[in-house]
Batch of 2 targets.
Target 1
Amino acid sequence: MTIANNLSELIGNTPLVKLNHVTEGIKATIAVKVEYFNPGGSSKDRIAERIIDAAERSGELQPGGVIVEPTSGNTGVGLALVAQQRGYRTIFTLPDKVSESKRAVLRAYGAEIVVTPTDAGPDDPRSYYQVAERLAKTIPGGFRPNQYDNPNGPASHYATTGPEIWKATDGKVTHFVAGIGTGGTISGTGRYLKEVSDGKVKVIGSDPEGSIYSAPSMADVHQYDIEGVGEDFYPKAFDRTITDDIVKVNDHDAFLMTRRLASEEGLLVGGSSGMAVASAIEYARRNNLDENQLVVVLLPDSGRSYLEKIFNDDWMRAHGYGDIVEATTRPSLVA
Ligand code: PMP
């Protein structure tokens, strides 16, 4: 029988598929690892499971414990999913700019939500970071996963994502490309692929223009629209020694590729996925990668979380991306 005993068993082992259209003019094979096949819909299911396993083993998380984390997105879904299966409460703090639909998703999984003012900076006691810290310390049984510092984030990708890519490509992968948020994905997966290939696999980071990882100086760090990637500080989960190169992408090019992946490749994915593919193509072009190269790009989540933004033509036009709408939408036929 192939009936899974519970949803956690379905985390990982996501498929790889070759890109056939957006890669026009590129000789190398570009394959994407589609993480929306995870039960919670993103790569973050992997870290949630490992962080909770490790906290149970260390005793930081006891039966009936409460998981508290400042997160509005994929990490919250992953944690809520694993937590409900094991009888833990989850409390997520999030700034009031987070859309109602994202709040609804977390509540649907059984999480409790504390909404904080967006204009409260990280040092403000009302900020979602500080409220989470306070709740984790004062609630009996409180446990704070802290995905930016927790070594189990990268460890989960070292143990699962890396080996899956090596096996699925029969060890023929030559390049691995992933966006950098906490840095867990690229550091863990990249470390495994380098070790198993005797350093032959090149690891390429993808970063939004304005983020610290690809900014020439702190003066170049600024806001951007791509979600889930980039930072304005260096988290412990990111191991800078693993990446061979970082290719930055601006919001426009990331969103154009995100829309093209949906309309040309049938891949409805998020903006950080479009960004990663844009980086991979740019890297392949710059370095003249040939037919012998196999580039694997990780696509972290589904486009369903971005229907109100990247896939909403009005939002796109209002934010200066009107040309992308024109380039990727067929006219509606009104009878
Ligand atoms: N894309 C999305 C949509 C994400 O939520 C994240 C996680 N913040 C990433 C990419 C980057 O992954 P990581 O934190 O492992 O660097």
Target 2
Amino acid sequence: MIEVGVVMGSNSDWDVMEHAVKVLKDFGVNYEALVVSAHRTPDLLFEYAEAAETHGLKVIIAGAGGAAHLPGMLAAKTIVPVLGVPVPSKYLKGQDSLYSIVQMPKGIPVGTLAIGEAGATNAGLLAVQILACYKPELAVKLHEFRKMQAQTVLNMTLPEVE
Ligand code: RP5
């Protein structure tokens, strides 16, 4: 059963959002990835969000750029947790996306990540952490991932100063 939905406002968001998908794949999470535009396919947005809970989705990761209302509108139509990824935009470098996603008025939360690749990767990791609350095999994999990540830093060396 698909547990995580990764949606984005355009296929131009893929270069960023693929980093969330890569994490889900690496952890063996069943996911689906699709384009849903809040302003160009609003009916599809409503359909997707309304069906999310009954389809068994546990987390939705939503990435969008510019006036990025996709995560907030999805969150408005479902109680499935929505993680928002601000995609870098052409003129404002994603600050517009960040502000659009992060400043949700109280009552409808969106868990907002960092702008760009780091945010997409962390959205994937956060989704895995949410699933790990009831899937012990994912918790084991997360502990292993953290250990390997720490070891990478412990192995780092710095150049000698002449
Ligand atoms: C938003 O507008 C998308 O999320 C994308 O970041 C941005 C530009 O979309 P395209 O013009 O590249 O389709 O809806």
